[in-house]
């Protein structure tokens, strides 16, 4: 299910290892990087992918509004 999302960044996100979450024993916990492009907390996943997973259908190209993250267009992929 392809989607178009306008992003304005012109460089990478920096994630400092010191910011990685740890459990009570000090072990590193997993971090989840957004792959859908809809997160409001890029590069981290914020759960927004659940919205696209729930509505997008195979074979359709979806365009999302960059502010509201709502679908504003859909057409055959
Ligand atoms: S993968 Fe994009 S918000 Fe979770």
- Amount of helix: under 10%
The spatial strand order of the largest sheet comes to: 1-2-3
Q: What's the β-strand tally?
A: 3
Number of helices: 1
Which tags fit this structure?
3-stranded mixed β-sheet; binds FE2/S2 (inorganic) cluster; mainly beta; 77 residues
Account of the 3D structure:
This protein is mainly beta. The protein has a domain at 30-77. It is built from 1 helix and 3 strands, in the order βαββ. The chain has a 3-stranded mixed sheet with strand order 1-2-3, with no helix packed on it. Bound molecules: FE2/S2 (inorganic) cluster. FE2/S2 (inorganic) cluster (FES) is lined by residues 34-36, 38-39, 45-49.
What is this structure's SSE topology?
Layout: E1 3-4, H1 49-55, E2 60-64, E3 71-76
FE2/S2 (inorganic) cluster binds next to loops.
TL;DR?
This protein is 9% helix and 17% strand.
